Amino acid sequence: MVKKILSCLDKYTIYAILCPLFVVIETVLEVFIPFYMSKIIDVGMANGGDIAYISRMGGLMVAFAVLSLVCGAVAAHFAARASAGLAKGIRKKIFDRIQDFSFANIDRFSTASLVTRITTDVTTTQQAFMMTIRSVVRSPVMLIVATVMAVRINWQLSTIFFVALPFLGAILVIIAIRAFPRFKYMMKIYDKMNGSVQENLAGIRVVKSFVRGDYESKRFAFSADEVKHAQIRAEKLLAWNMPVMQITMYGTITAIVWFGGRFIIGGMMTAGELMGFISYVSQILMSLMMLSMVFVLLIMSRASVARIAEILDEVPDIADDGTETTVSDGSVAFENVSFSYFKDENNVVLENVSFSIAAGETVGIVGGTGSSKTTLVQLIPRLYDVLGGTIRVGGKDVRQYKVAALRQAVAMVLQKNVLFSGTILDNLRWGNQNATEEEVVNACKIAQAHAFISSFPDGYQTLLGQGGVNLSGGQKQRLCIARALLKTPKIMILDDSTSAVDTATDSKIRAALRGNHKDITTIIIAQRISSVCEADKIIVLDDGKINGIGTHETLMRENAIYREVYESQQEGKVTA
Fold first, then answer.
1. For a tag site, which of 135, 269, 435, 436 has the least CB within 10 Å?
2. Termini Cα distance of the chain
3. Alpha-helical regions (H) of 135-203
4. Region for 322 from its dihedrals, namely left if φ exceeds 0, alpha if ψ lies in -120 to 50, beta otherwise
5. How many C-alpha atoms does 498 have within 13 Å on its Cβ side?
């Protein structure tokens, strides 16, 4: 897990190596300062105030202090660059991995959880790494060198902190074992709160239109309260870390001063040696205190690192191991296809579905809510993979194609119309970044979007808010259709994508598609029978199974479900 995280350093590895190097130099220089201080007391001052000796030793102390400061500053600079580079690498790796996910992979993680992992968890990991490459190197070096120097001064007095260390270590281990699961739980609650925020902001118009602001405020307050309680429960355990450290530190120094004073009285130790010894013990205990702080941060970051690794270790559900790079035509064939979101043969949403569509045909798909119409068409570009059976596009199993090649040949206009921040032109060129202005305008005319775009003062350069909030539902649908047309696909899937436009505009779009793109296989999922009645064939789905296939006239005669839907819609028109 740690190796996987560190691999994200990439070109910043050099800074991660140089930082500990300068930390070691800084620490060694710092450890020698008490040695010269003890010499000033025991030699310079003992010899009646030898100014030359005191000045020489004092000069060395100042030089070592300045060099130590410079090395510390350089190490801090390298640590900052290395940790920032690591955070950048982790975020890029997470984002790249998410791009490789199939819909099934994405379903396993909530959007809020993915956002938390790529922001909060990465930041926590970054801070832990920065502290680690500085303090985890500095503290052991200082601990070892200062201990050697202290033992050289008086090995008997050194036994005091050798007794304190096991006690301190045992307490820290107990804290670590008990704290980790609490921090792991805290991050789950954090995900839940972020989910609440994201849902509320995405649906802010609905919240305001139903005057549910107070309700949502209370709901968020409850989520925030849960996070607070989880944080308190986790961090109050870590709060014991510092008191335990301080008690150990002050207790050790008190014992050293007591026994050291007795050694001086007994002539076993000089005042300068005791001062130096206390300085070294302070350095040892400070190094332990720094280690304990890093220890706390590592406990907190361990849960974040595990959550990051969970994303990086997630194996994409769809293996891109095909070799075909060209889709010859838009023919589609389903052969005994079954599908389950959970890969459970006893819980399928599509069962033994078989049908064929010739290249250039227009096919309608109708069925009640939950009949798996959308799921069926999402299998064509391998947004999900089948549980059983085979899907052929252009006469070949979809698994034989490179995923990018297959999806480039299939244009989908989904139920939820997604537009991005930027201009209308930027959004349209998602379909083809090299599309000419003439191609863009032509696609928009077919999608019946050119007129309303031209009515805007800035035309195709009109800036859209996030998600296209400054457009109506029908306008967004027409832009999405135009964007799909710019891909010049072999297969075009319209998933209830004209539900927000009036029937006259819907009819114009279908007529324009038939007149300008006869070679494109068009699959239309619709609630309105009028949107598919002119299709070459219509597939009726019911509870994940095919209930009927035929033309409008054939299904009106032979299929009860289709006839019932049609008649109910006609009655609605009469009533209206």
1. 436
2. 63
3. 137-153, 155-202
4. beta
5. 25
Query: What is the rounded distance in angstroms from the CA atom of residue 364 to the CA atom of residue 352?
Result: 19
For residue 393, the cross-strand partners are 332, 396
Number of neighbouring beta carbons within 10 Å of residue 54: 17
* DSSP string for residues in 254-298: HHHHHHHHHHHHTTSS-HHHHHHHHHHHHHHHHHHHHHHHHHHHH
Q: Which of 455, 454, 442 is nearest to 481 (CA)?
A: 442
Task: List the one residue out of 394, 355, 324, 361 whose CA is nearest residue 492.
Answer: 361
Burial of 81 (0-12, 13-18, 19+ CB in 10 A): middle
Pick from 262, 321, 275: nearest CA to 41? 275
Label residue 542 exposed, middle or buried (CB < 10 Å: 0-12, 13-18, 19+).
middle
CA 234 to chain centre: 23
Higher pLDDT, 247 or 46: 247
Structure tokens at 440: 């863009």
Distance of CA 249 to the CA centre of its chain: 41
The answer to whether 202 touches 124, Cβ cutoff 8 Å, is no
Quick check: 475 and 449 in contact, CB under 8 A? yes
Class of residue 362 by CB neighbours under 10 A (exposed 0-12, middle 13-18, buried 19+): buried
Quick count: other Cβ atoms within 10 Å of Cβ 209?
Answer: 9
Return d(Cα 297, Cα 288) in angstroms, integer: 14
Relative to beta strand 350-357, strand 332-339 is: antiparallel
- In which band, very low, low, confident or very high, does the pLDDT at 255 lie, cut at 50, 70 and 90? confident
**Closest C-alpha to 363, from 172, 206, 493, 187:** 493
Q: Both tokens of residue 452? A: 């309303």
Task: Answer for the pair 425, 440: CB distance below 8 angstroms, yes or no.
Answer: yes
pLDDT in tens, 404-448: 999 999 998 887 778 888 899 999 998 888 999 999 999 999 999
What pLDDT, in 10s, does the model give residues 265-278? 777 777 777 777 77
What angle, 0 to 180 degrees and rounded to 10, lies between the N-to-C axes of helices 241-265 and 271-313?
Answer: 160
Rounded Cα gap, residues 494 and 206, in angstroms: 26
120 contact partners, CB below 8 Å, separation of at least 6: 187, 190, 304
Q: How far is CA 403 from CA 219, 240, 406, 460, in A?
A: 42, 54, 5, 31
pTM for this model (two decimals): 0.69
DSSP of 533-565: TTSSEEEEEETTEEEEEE-HHHHHHH-HHHHHH
Residue 326, Ramachandran bin (φ over 0: left; ψ between -120 and 50: alpha; else beta): beta
Sign of CA dihedral 139, 26, 300, 232: positive
Q: How far apart are CA 525 and CA 541, in angstroms?
A: 11
The residue assigned the tokens 């297969």 is: 491
User: Residue 30 belongs to what H/E stretch?
Assistant: helix 13-39
DSSP, collapsed to helix, strand or coil, labels residue 100 as helix
